[in-house]
Amino acid sequence: MVVDELSGNTLNVYVYIVRADEPVGTRDVTRGAELSSTSVAFRHLQKLEDLGLIEKDSYGNYLLKQKVNISEYVWVGKYLVPRLMYYSFFFLGAFAAEVSIILLSLVIKSLVVETSFWFLTVMNFAVMLLFIIEGLPLYRKLNSKCVRQDSRDSE
């Protein structure tokens, strides 16, 4: 399966090409994905081309041919976000709504917050925090190289 082949530097090269949104050369990939040499970049580009995910244009540059779903990650625009982080955003929204209700109960005296609602709010916070703690290292691992490259490009 194509997705099983995407890991490590091959995945970083693929994400770099998706985020580049334009044809890139071997040297661009070497710098952008922070690889040790152009031959390493070329090997990963060949692998992605063999998988049918990228293609070479008439100038020898590589461009995205197919954007695929990657297990444990979700595409949000051009960014690859770990599913755990994605889930944490859901629980963050629920937690914010629960805190809003609690704060509203301080203003409106007729609105009574029961003990079970407090328990639900604390549990929701704990789940959100666990998803963030588990998902953040995955996000940093994958996106650290791309974020550094984006900051260099904007200078």
Polypeptide structure, described:
There is one protein chain. By secondary structure, the protein is mostly helical. It folds into two domains: 2-64, Winged helix-like DNA-binding domain superfamily/Winged helix DNA-binding domain (Arc Repressor Mutant, subunit A), CATH 1.10.10.10; 73-154. It is built from six helices and four strands. The strands form two sheets. A two-stranded antiparallel ribbon has the order 1-2. Strands 3-4 form a two-stranded antiparallel ribbon. The longest helix is centred in the C-terminal third of the chain and has 40 residues, at 115-154. The chain is elongated. Mean pLDDT is 86; it is low at 147-155.
Instruction: Classify the secondary structure makeup into a structural class.
Output: mainly alpha
Helix content: 55-70%
Uncertain residue ranges = 147-155
Q: What's the helix-strand series? A: HHHHEEEEHH
Calculate the terminal CA-CA distance, rounded to whole Å.
Answer: 39 Å
Count of runs of 4 or more consecutive helical residues? 6
Strand content: 5-15%
* Rounded mean pLDDT score: 86
The total tally of domains equals 2
Q: Mind summarizing the main beta sheet? A: 2 strands, antiparallel
Rg computed from alpha carbons, rounded to a whole number of angstroms: 21 Å
What's the shape?
Answer: elongated
The order of strands across the largest sheet is: 1-2
Number of E-state strands: 4
Oligomer description: single chain
